[in-house]
Amino acid sequence: MNLVEAKAALRKEAKDRRSDARAADPNREKETAINAHLLELIGSRSGKALSGYMPIRTEPSSLAAMAAWSAHSRVCLPVVQGRAAPLTFRAWGPGAEMEQGAFGAMIPVSLDPVTPHILIVPLLAFDRTGGRLGYGGGHYDRTIEALRATGDAFAVGFAYAAQAVSEVPREPTDIPMDAIVTEEEVILPTT
């Protein structure tokens, strides 16, 4: 099995695992714990702009952490600009006017650009070395690489513990996460 096939097979398995984890959390207690771990992890970075995301499909929601962060720092949401392009970011806050963007994700109507320093990154699967398997578009990889090249960028994978795998197949263009938060723990990757 080549790398492309291995990633495709893992994506299918990972989607099922994430769906099962979401279904096992009807009261969103795991989601609440993930948000708490995230805020604990990034608390020392107060004042830095945070990029969250609007959950689609069975992704855990980071809205609680985003709302809490917006009380003292800028928050933004990613906007897909096109195939093979890095993401751009628009300012967000509780009650922001939203519209549907690419892949069904809601994005702010506001065109106010923000450059994030902390990125909450959705994923399908992760490993303990910071490996992240996304949907395959490479948007976050390109974005994190560009942000790291020009300054401060801290990428945090946001997931259910059930999304962990022993090893995520990686290509040279796959950018590792600086940390991963789940309902069970904060993972600071090892190499």
Q: What does this 3D model show about the protein?
A:
With 191 residues, the chain is α/β, with parallel strands linked by helices. Helices cover 28% and strands 19% of the residues. The chain contains four helices and eleven strands, in the order ααβαβββββββαβββ. The protein has helices at residues 3-23, 29-42, 63-69, 139-150, and strands at 50-51, 75-79, 88-92, 98-100, 106-108, 118-122, 125-126, 132-133, 154-158, 179-181, 186-187. The strands form three sheets. The protein has a seven-stranded mixed sheet with strand order 3-2-1-6-9-10-11, sandwiched between helices. It has a two-stranded antiparallel ribbon with strand order 4-5. The protein is globular and about 45 Å long.
Task: Give the number of helices.
Answer: 4
Oligomer: single chain
The helix/strand class is alpha/beta
Mean pLDDT: 94
Flag low-confidence runs: none
Shape: globular
Helix content: 25-40%
Strand tally = 11
The proportion of strand residues reads 15-25%
Alpha-carbon distance between the two ends: 25 Å
Name the strands of the widest sheet in spatial order: 3-2-1-6-9-10-11
Sheet with the most strands, sense and barrel status: 7 strands, mixed
